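step: validate -> pass
step: tokenize input -> pass
step: predict -> running
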Amino acid sequence: MKLSTTIFAALLIFLHVRHATAEEYIGEFSVLNAPRLNYLLNLEFKEAGVEGALMPMAGYDDPPIVVDGTNLRPGELVLTFHLKKPVTVTFKKSVNGDLINWWADGAFFRRYSGGLSEGARTLSWQNCSNFVGTLVATPKPDVTNRKLKDFFAREKELAQLKVTAWSTDDDRKVGSFAALFSNVKSFKSNLFDVPIGSEVTVVQTLRKSGLFSKVDIPEGGCGGGYVSQVGIRKASVFTNGKFDEQRFKEFITKNFTDFLASSGSTYRMESKKTIPLKIRPYYTTFIITAAADSKQLRGINGFWDHFTAVFSPAETSMDSPDSIAVNVDVQSATSAKRIVTSDEPPSADYFKQLLNDDETFVISEAIGDFISSKSGGYCYFEGEGIGENSDEKRQSEINKRLENCR
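step: predict -> pass
step: emit ->
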């Protein structure tokens, strides 16, 4: 078979970049009008010249796109992307902490330390979207129910995975992946929730099947997204390169206990529970129910708060190869006035006042901020819209607390 000149050149560059010291970036390239929004970009800098390839995100089988250009001035990079009609773009460099960014109409970035994690190579980086939990999948036009059935028969772990399917009328159904999506019409809304931590495996498996034109984190609308995450070193919770459930539980327990005790007030740990992820990478979600002083949790005096904290490890597009994200989700948060004569939190049935989303999210962020500061990791939250249901004074207090996340 005779290869076209473009594909042959792309193959040579791809093989060369893969076997040379190259820099791998992830980026959003809307300026190219290419088939996909996000790509991996492998670049090798040679004096004033640059060459490389634009590669699809992990799991897709799109052919590479040849890239070359010049780096004649510091902080300026001129790249030509050899599509059917070549596109030349000038990028400007900026450095933000550990991130090296190149900006134009679109941008690409990498970290100073280490390369890209499997999460970064798989899940698109998109503004305002949640980085965990929800995925979108669009079947190709020629996909049939029989092809889906055969696919689930091969991928038994994925077939049995418990997911939540969205529908166009906002009705949601819970069941196994195979049960809910054995019919092509099931993908009408394209959106579904998966267990946190399974995103990379689910996305790569669906992409590699060849049945879907798109599988990814969905593009989100800004505002109203309540997400709190903390990045920690894998070395803290891994043993011999593998996730260690016991070490994860010990890490979370120690840091969570230190957080509750840091104000000097008393607290109570009521229960602990684990939920194993039944698909690669077999992470474990750790759930703790506790009661503590509202001053420590939300910056408000005179109350006790009772809540459940859910800690779910996951690989995200923000992580380096040496880090892992922990999603912090506070649920069922209630409050009660503090009894002056008692220094101990009251029993669980004493808590009657349900906390709103604003106050609940403040607790999630406070936990994530504390763990990140102690472990030297990152703290991320998507909380646009938080505080809008509170009065002006409380909204200002909440916004100030959220600024602590770093």
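step: describe -> Residues 125 and 379 are 17 Å apart (CA to CA).
step: cleanup -> pass
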